[in-house]
Amino acid sequence: MPSADPSAETPRTSAYEPVSPQEQEPVRPTKEDEVARAGSELIGGPVGRRVLFTASWWTPVRIIALVALGMFALGMVQKMPCYNGAWFFGASSQYTHACYSDIPHLYQGRGFADGLVPYFDRLPGDMEYLEYPVLTGVFMEMASWVTPGSGSIQHQEKIYWMVNAGILMACTAVVAVCVARTHRRRPWDALLVALAPAFALTATINWDLLAVALMAAAMLMWSRSRVVAFGVLLGLATAAKLYPVLILGPLLILCWRAGKWREFGIALLGTVSAWLVVNLPVILLASDGWSKFYTFSQERGVDFGSFWLILSQRMDSPLSTDTVNTLATALMLLACLGVGALGLTAPRRPRLAQLAFLVVAAFVLTNKVYSPQYVLWLIPLAALARPRWRDFLIWQACEVAYFLGIWLYLAYTTSGDAHKGLPTEGYQLAIVVHLVGTLYLCAVVVRDILMPERDVVRQAGDDDPSGGVLDGARDVFVLGAAGHARQTALHTSQTPAVKWGAAPDLPR
């Protein structure tokens, strides 16, 4: 039956058509996504246009934030067997219940229970110093201040986990709100983040959500063309976890293609400055403690979740750590070069979220370790890069399978002669499932870049909603014959005031 609102269904056929008022209305996922439409039957079917656009307290952003908090709470409930004793009284039971978390174990293991100051005070044992970036160390230390020092150590560790979980819940709300607001017309895409099962399962394993929240806030600032704020937030995110700095690579490629060198320079300066503000005092006053994160990352051997582990377990003479470091770095550089070439030669300038997802995914795939919570790095970027429920859920199913696989494997290795859990071959299969799922999502994102007419975001009439100053910008440099042909066509166009590949600049 024909739609009463054809502009919401039919994409613009010309790159030079302006955006109509109807196209600026929020996109309804239940109208463009068959999986979302089928899933909406659980709550009564798709929401009508009149209801969706009626002003009320129940805005999309608020609904998404509440859903995200509800899923986070369910994730906390899933950890209850460990909270009730499995963390302390049975090494294998925390794995069989799939409720393991680093947080309670590191409360005593990294000196917080004894009042040691991260990076400044040496730890007993082989670790010497806290092996986390500075801003994450500050997060951990501040949570220890709120944790009461009375009672048994088990009681203190449980309270420490609860305190951290409360702060991480706030980070979850920040992630959900920022993703919902990054694409102005597509707030409902953030439901992919809010309802992601791997997000709920891994949110309280470690402190990664701090960096994820800062990264999501940075992406929001860039989408609003607030370049200085983007740089500062990206620098803070990098001070909490290393992976956010990778976003500067895709940003360089896109700014190069659009000729936005000034904006990239400001973003780079803001990132470096914010990172130095956090790190420089510790570098000057406790250099040995500060460098522990970097030396630990370099010296760490092949570990869980990586294809390097499969190779190590199947080789008679496993590769040395130095060799793996060299090969992993080479593979990552090759992947980055591939993403860069894709960004400069694509028929239409890729969206920032697409290249950002590919670069972070490349790091995840080539790294010598893949902890289960690393999926948190990718979930917000995946929702922005490829907001299709089918592909997202396929990937999430693979990540949940890996989440269960690693704990069952650890249960197998810690249960002694009983061998309760997943043997080595089964765990290797779980790793392969994780790798294939991530590669699948990368493949559909690459396809969207090479065939922009398949990109669901651009089908709705947008150019790059998360691109900020890049949104609707004219290309000034494109590699390849196809790119030069497009530039020639653009410069000879009869409508030079309108930018290639998007509508004219509109008030922001």
Automatic annotation (TrEMBL):
Location of the protein in the cell: Cell membrane
Top-rank lineage group of the source organism: Bacteria
Alphabetized Pfam families for the sequence: GT87
Transmembrane parts of this sequence: 57-77, 159-180, 192-222, 228-254, 266-287, 323-346, 352-371, 392-412, 427-446
Name of the protein: Glycosyltransferase 87 family protein
Organism, scientific name: Streptomyces atriruber
Main location (coarse class): membrane
Membrane association type: Multi-pass membrane protein
Renumbered residue ranges of the record's region Disordered: 1-34
